[in-house]
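Look at one such:
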Amino acid sequence: MATSSVFFPSSSESLVDLSREGPLFILTMIDHENRFTTEMCKAICDAMDHVMDVVDKEDMQQAALMTRGQDKFYSNGLNMEKAWAIPGFTDHTFMPMLNKILMFGIPTIACMNGHAFAGGCLMAMAHDYRVMRSDRGFMCMNEIDLPSPLPAGMSALLRYKMHPHVYRSVVLEAKRYGGKEALAYHLVDAIAEGVEPTVALAKEVALKIAPKAKCGSIFELIKEDMYPEVSSRLMMNAKL
């Protein structure tokens, strides 16, 4: 049974809708293209902190976090105008958010309901699992076409999560991957046609892995051993 939503940063200025269906927490980005700003990143991080507070308070033996967008966008990346107006946005805000997702203490699933470009692609890749809509939407890193450099932490995340020849096509060619091709190249774990079937499949994947959360802090400790280089590079210039 679904619970009522909690909105971040507030109900009057909502960027993120956090709801719950039993052991599954659903974080929905609700800012149209879901471009990343200081406010959006903080809202996502605050919602994730809320999830872990509930998991710890209730001593949940099963738990998972699914993120999604709305309409045709999962996330269209950084809001360049606002991001570059804040000195250190990438180092101090965006990459620490990616690290928080990467190292999160319960299983995470990105439900890619639509386009995941640049920062949106990075956010999806930071999750443990990805489910993508097959009939609409692409994932792509288009920095080379902007042009814009790719910071070490972002490169490390993509390099770890992708096969070498796929990583080359992603960063040097800005290749766009639709759902079927993304599945073939192991960028995502499952695909479905249409928004609602994609959401339903993502929930199925999430609920299947949710019992692994019963190991508590061990889940996060295992991730620390999985991603030491990626995490250190994402956080190397962060002001904590």
In short: Residues 38-58 form the longest helix (21 residues). The longest strand covers residues 16-21.
